[in-house]
Backbone:
C-alpha cells in the first residue's frame, strides 16, 4: 500500500490553515499575497492526491490551470500593490482603509 | 512504477516533504522580513513539488518548480526590492482588536473541521478515472492529451487570461507622464543647453 | 292655502342666500331691510297657511318635499307637518323675528359686520322654521343643529372679545351634550318603532281612542319609554337651558341684544319645550318620565328665579328670568298641561322679547352701559322705552289682566292638578319673578340718574337719547301683544287641544280655579310690593344679593372643578406625557432605534481588509461547524 491519501490530505489541510492564518494576521500586503499562494498550493496538493487515488488525470489538469491562474493573479496583484505603494509609500494594508461605512 | 506497498523510503519521502511544507509555511507567516518570507515560500513550494513527485505527478512537479518557485516568487522578490520594503516589519503590533484570537479560533475551527469531515467521509470517494486514467509512467502524455482535448477551451481561456494579466500589469505599473513621484524622471538626456553641440549630423551630442 | 307652508322656508332661506351672495355689496342698512322683508314674507306665508289650516277638516297636513335617507326598505323623507302646533309656532316665530330684525336695523347701526349679523339671523329663522315644521325627528334634528350653530355664530359675534368667543363655545358645547340625548332617543325609537315620523309614532302609541285600555299594548316597555323620555329631556335641557345644562344661557348674553331677544328668549330656547310637546303621546304613557320632567321644570324655575334676584347686569337678570320661565313651561309639559305650556311660550315670546329689546334700547341709549348700578332716572329721557318696559314688567310679574297672568295661571293650574308640591315650588318661583323684575325696573328706570357719575370717562352718557323709530316701533307692537295676549287663551286652547288630547282633560272646578287665580294675583302684587319697598332709592343691598346667588349657586364653579379641570388635566397629561412619550416615542423611537442599530452595524465596515477577511473566515468556520454538527 502506498502512502494513504489521508496523510497528504491532512498536510494539505494544515497548509491551508497556516496560509489562512497568515492572511488574517500579517499586515504587509506582499506577505499576505504569499500566504494566499500557500493556500493555493494546499489546494494543488489535495488535487494531485485525489488524482492519484482515483486514478484520474482530471485532478492534474486542474492543478495545471490553477498554476496558470495563480501566475496571472500574482502579476496583476503585484501591479496593484506597486500602484498603491506609489501613492502612499506603504505596503501596510491597514493604511488603505477608506472604504468604510 | 510505484510500488503497491508502502515502503520505508516512501514514508521517509513523505515525512520529509511534509516537514518542508509545513516548516516553510510557518516560516512564511512568522518571518519579519518579507524577503525571508519569500525564501520560506520557496521552501514550501519545493516541498510541494517533492510531494508531487512522490505521487507520480512528475510533470507537475517540474512545472511547479519552474513556474511557481522560479517565476512567481522571483516576481515577488523583484517587487519587494523595487519598492524597497525589505526592512523588518513590526509583527507584534496588531491595531485591530481581537483580530488575532478570532483568527486563530476561526482558522482552527475550519482546519480541524475540514480534517474531521474528511475523516468522517472516508477521505475520498467518487468514480475512478472520469476524465482519463492516469499512467504513472506517462503522466506528461496523459496530461497533455487531456489538456488539448478535454480541456482545450479552458486552455485557450487561460492563455487569454495571461495576456490580459500582462496588459493589466503593464497598465498599472506604467508611470503617467506628469507623475510627481519619488523616482524622478531621467534627466535631460541631451545635457544642459551650453553643452549641446550644434551638430546637424544625427547621432548627436557628445 | 296650506301649500304656503314650504314658502315660509323658501323666504327665510332666500333671504339668507341673497345676503350671503350680495350682502357685502348691499351694505348697511339695505342688508337689514332685505332680511326683515324676507322674514316678513315668511310671516305672511304663515298667516296664509294658518287660514288654510282653519278651513280644513282634518287639521293636519303632511307636505312632502323630497325623499332623503333610505334606510333599509324605508325612507326618511323631508316633509312638513302642518298642524295647529306647528302653525302656532311658525306664527309667533316669524312674527317676533320680523319685529326683532326691524329693531336690529337700528340697534346694529355702525357695526363693522352689519351684514354678517343679518346673514346668520336669516339662517337662524330658516333653521327654526325647519325644526318646527318637520314631520319627523330627523328633520327636526337638522333644524335643531342649525339653530345651535347659528346661536354659536351670533353669540360669538364680537369674537374679538375673548369672553364672547368663549361664551359661544360654551353655548354650543352644552347644546351638543344635550344632542347626545336627542340622538340616543332617535336611535332607540327607530329600532323599536321603525319610524321617526310624528304621525306614525303617534298612531303606534295611541292605538284606540282611550290609551291604557286593557287591550292596548304600548309599543315600548315602560322602562324603555322612560329612557326615551329622559334622553329627550336631556336634549331639551341642553337646548332650553334647564338644570343641569343651563349655565350657557347667562354667558350667551355676550351676543348683541337682538340675538338675546330672539334666540335666547323667544325662539331657540323654546325648541326643547316644543320637542317634548311633540312627543306628548310618549310622555302620556310614562308616569316616571313625566315626574322627572315636571320636577326638573319646577326646580329650574325656582333656582333660576333665586339667582335672578342677585344679578347686577340687566341682561343677566333677563337671562336667568328666561331660564326660570322655561322651567314653568317644562313644568306644564310634565304636568300634562300642554296647551298651557304653548300659551306661556307664545306670551313669553312677546313679553320677554319686549323686555330684552327694551333693555337693548337702554343699553343703546346709555352708550353700552349694562350695569344696573349705573342706570336710573330714565323716565323722562327715554319715554317710549320706559312705557313699553313698564308694560313688559307688569306682564312678567303676573299682574292681571296682562297676558302672563293668564298663561302662568294656566301652567300653575296644571301643576296643581298634577302635584301640589310642584305647584308650591312654582308659586314661590312666581313670587320671586315679580320680586326680581320689580328690582330690575326700579334700578334701571327710577331714582337718580346714576349714569351721570360715569360721565367723566364716557362723555356720551351726558345725554342719553331715545332710540330711533326702527327700534321703538317693535317695542310698541310687542307691548300691545304682551298686554292683550290674555285674549288668546280660549282660542288657543280650542285650536291646540286636538293635537294633544283625544279626550279633553277635565277642567278644574270653578271654585278651585278662582282660588288659584286669586293666589296668583296676590303673589304677583306681593312680590312687586316687597321689591318696590326694599329697592326704592337704594342701589346696593348686599344682604339681599349674597354671593351664593350671584355666583349661580356656584354651579359653574362646580362644573369647572368636577369636569372642567380634570378634563384639562387629562388633556394636558395626554398632550405632555402620552403624546410625546408614548406615541411620538413609538414613532420616533422606532426610527431612532433603527438608526442606533444601523450605526452599530455600520461599525463592522471599518475599512480594514483584514477584518473583512476575518469575517469571511468566521463565516466559513460557521459553515464548517454546521456541517460538523450535522455529521456527528
Residues:
Amino acid at each position: 500500500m502506498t502512502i494513504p491519501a489521508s496523510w497528504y490530505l491532512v498536510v494539505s489541510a494544515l497548509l491551508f490553515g497556516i496560509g489562512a492564518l497568515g492572511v488574517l494576521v500579517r499586515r504587509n500586503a506582499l506577505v499576505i499575497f504569499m500566504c494566499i499562494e500557500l493556500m493555493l498550493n494546499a489546494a494543488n496538493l489535495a488535487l494531485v492526491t485525489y488524482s492519484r487515488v482515483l486514478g484520474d488525470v482530471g485532478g492534474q489538469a486542474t492543478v495545471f490551470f490553477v498554476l496558470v491562474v495563480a501566475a496571472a493573479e500574482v502579476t496583476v496583484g503585484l501591479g496593484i500593490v506597486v500602484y498603491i505603494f506609489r501613492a502612499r509609500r506603504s505596503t501596510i494594508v491597514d493604511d488603505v482603509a477608506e472604504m468604510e461605512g | 512504477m510505484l510500488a503497491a506497498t508502502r515502503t520505508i523510503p516512501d514514508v521517509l519521502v513523505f515525512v520529509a516533504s511534509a516537514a518542508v511544507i509545513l516548516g516553510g509555511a510557518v516560516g512564511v507567516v512568522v518571518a519579519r522580513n518579507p524577503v525571508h518570507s519569500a525564501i520560506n515560500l520557496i521552501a514550501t513550494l519545493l516541498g510541494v513539488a517533492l510531494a508531487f513527485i512522490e505521487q507520480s505527478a512528475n510533470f507537475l512537479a517540474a512545472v511547479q518548480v519552474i513556474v511557481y518557485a522560479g517565476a512567481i516568487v522571483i516576481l515577488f522578490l523583484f517587487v519587494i526590492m523595487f519598492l524597497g520594503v525589505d526592512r523588518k516589519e513590526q509583527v507584534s503590533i496588531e491595531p485591530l482588536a481581537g483580530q488575532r484570537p478570532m483568527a486563530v479560533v476561526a482558522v482552527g475551527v475550519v482546519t480541524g473541521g475540514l480534517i474531521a469531515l474528511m475523516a468522517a467521509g472516508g477521505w475520498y470517494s467518487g468514480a475512478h478515472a472520469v476524465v482519463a486514467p492516469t499512467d504513472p509512467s506517462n503522466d506528461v502524455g496523459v496530461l497533455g492529451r487531456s489538456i488539448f482535448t478535454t480541456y482545450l477551451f479552458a486552455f485557450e481561456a487561460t492563455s487569454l487570461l495571461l495576456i490580459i494579466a500582462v496588459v493589466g500589469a503593464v497598465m498599472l505599473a506604467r508611470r503617467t507622464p506628469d507623475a510627481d513621484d519619488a523616482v524622478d524622471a531621467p534627466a535631460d538626456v541631451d545635457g544642459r543647453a551650453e553643452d549641446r553641440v550644434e551638430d546637424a549630423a544625427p547621432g548627436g551630442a557628445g | 292655502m296650506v301649500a304656503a307652508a314650504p314658502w315660509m322656508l323658501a323666504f327665510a332661506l332666500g333671504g339668507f342666500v341673497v345676503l350671503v351672495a350680495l350682502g357685502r355689496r348691499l351694505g348697511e342698512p339695505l342688508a337689514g331691510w332685505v332680511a326683515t322683508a324676507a322674514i316678513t314674507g315668511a310671516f305672511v306665508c304663515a298667516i296664509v297657511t294658518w287660514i288654510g289650516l282653519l278651513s280644513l277638516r282634518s287639521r293636519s297636513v303632511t307636505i312632502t318635499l323630497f325623499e332623503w335617507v333610505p334606510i333599509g326598505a324605508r325612507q326618511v323623507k323631508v316633509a312638513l307637518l302642518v298642524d295647529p302646533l306647528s302653525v302656532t309656532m311658525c306664527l309667533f316665530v316669524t312674527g317676533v323675528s320680523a319685529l326683532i330684525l326691524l329693531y336690529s336695523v337700528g340697534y346694529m347701526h355702525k357695526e363693522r359686520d352689519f351684514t354678517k349679523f343679518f346673514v346668520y339671523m336669516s339662517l337662524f329663522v330658516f333653521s327654526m322654521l325647519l325644526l318646527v315644521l318637520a314631520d319627523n325627528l330627523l328633520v327636526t334634528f337638522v333644524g335643531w343643529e342649525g339653530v345651535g350653530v347659528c346661536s354659536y355664530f351670533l353669540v360669538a359675534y364680537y369674537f374679538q372679545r375673548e369672553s364672547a368667543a368663549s361664551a359661544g363655545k360654551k353655548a354650543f358645547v352644552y347644546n351638543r351634550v344635550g344632542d347626545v340625548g336627542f340622538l340616543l332617543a332617535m336611535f332607540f325609537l327607530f329600532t323599536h318603532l321603525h319610524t321617526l315620523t310624528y304621525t306614525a309614532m303617534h298612531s303606534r302609541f295611541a292605538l284606540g281612542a282611550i290609551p291604557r285600555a286593557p287591550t292596548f299594548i304600548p309599543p315600548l316597555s315602560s322602562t324603555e319609554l322612560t329612557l326615551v323620555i329622559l334622553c329627550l329631556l336631556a336634549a331639551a335641557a341642553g337646548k332650553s337651558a334647564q338644570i343641569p345644562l343651563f349655565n350657557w344661557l347667562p354667558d350667551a348674553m355676550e351676543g348683541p341684544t337682538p340675538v338675546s331677544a330672539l334666540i335666547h328668549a323667544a325662539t331657540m330656547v323654546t325648541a326643547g319645550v316644543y320637542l317634548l310637546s311633540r312627543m306628548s303621546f310618549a310622555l302620556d304613557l310614562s308616569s316616571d318620565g313625566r315626574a322627572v320632567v315636571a320636577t326638573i321644570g319646577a326646580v329650574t324655575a325656582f333656582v333660576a328665579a333665586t339667582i335672578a334676584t342677585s344679578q347686577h347686569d340687566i341682561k343677566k337678570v333677563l337671562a336667568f328670568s328666561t331660564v326660570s320661565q322655561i322651567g314653568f313651561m317644562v313644568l306644564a309639559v310634565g304636568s300634562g298641561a300642554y296647551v298651557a305650556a304653548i300659551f306661556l311660550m307664545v306670551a313669553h315670546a312677546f313679553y320677554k322679547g319686549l323686555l330684552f329689546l327694551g333693555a337693548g334700547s337702554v343699553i343703546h341709549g346709555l352708550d353700552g352701559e349694562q350695569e344696573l348700578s349705573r342706570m336710573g332716572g330714565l323716565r323722562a329721557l327715554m319715554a317710549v322705552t320706559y312705557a313699553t318696559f313698564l308694560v313688559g314688567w307688569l306682564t312678567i310679574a303676573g299682574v292681571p289682566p296682562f297676558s302672563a297672568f293668564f298663561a302662568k295661571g294656566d301652567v300653575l293650574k296644571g301643576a296643581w292638578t298634577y302635584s301640589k308640591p310642584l305647584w308650591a315650588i312654582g308659586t314661590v318661583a312666581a313670587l320671586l319673578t315679580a320680586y326680581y323684575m320689580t328690582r330690575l325696573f326700579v334700578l334701571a328706570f327710577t331714582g337718580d340718574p346714576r349714569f351721570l357719575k360715569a360721565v367723566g370717562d364716557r362723555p356720551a352718557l351726558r345725554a342719553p337719547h331715545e332710540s330711533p323709530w326702527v327700534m321703538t316701533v317693535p317695542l310698541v307692537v310687542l307691548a300691545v301683544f304682551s298686554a292683550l295676549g290674555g285674549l288668546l287663551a280660549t282660542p288657543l286652547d280650542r285650536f291646540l287641544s286636538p293635537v294633544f288630547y283625544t279626550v279633553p282633560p277635565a277642567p278644574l272646578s270653578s271654585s278651585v280655579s278662582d282660588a288659584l287665580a286669586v293666589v296668583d294675583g296676590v303673589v304677583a302684587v306681593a312680590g312687586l310690593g316687597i321689591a318696590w319697598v326694599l329697592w326704592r332709592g337704594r342701589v346696593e343691598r348686599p344682604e339681599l344679593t349674597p354671593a351664593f346667588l350671584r355666583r349661580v349657586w356656584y354651579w359653574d364653579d362646580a362644573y369647572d372643578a368636577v369636569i372642567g379641570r380634570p378634563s384639562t388635566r387629562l388633556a394636558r397629561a395626554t398632550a405632555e406625557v402620552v403624546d410625546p412619550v408614548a406615541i411620538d416615542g413609538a414613532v420616533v423611537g422606532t426610527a431612532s432605534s433603527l438608526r442606533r442599530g444601523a450605526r452599530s452595524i455600520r461599525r463592522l465596515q471599518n475599512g480594514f481588509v483584514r477584518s473583512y477577511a476575518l469575517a469571511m473566515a468566521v463565516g466559513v468556520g460557521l459553515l464548517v461547524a454546521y456541517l460538523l454538527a450535522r455529521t456527528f
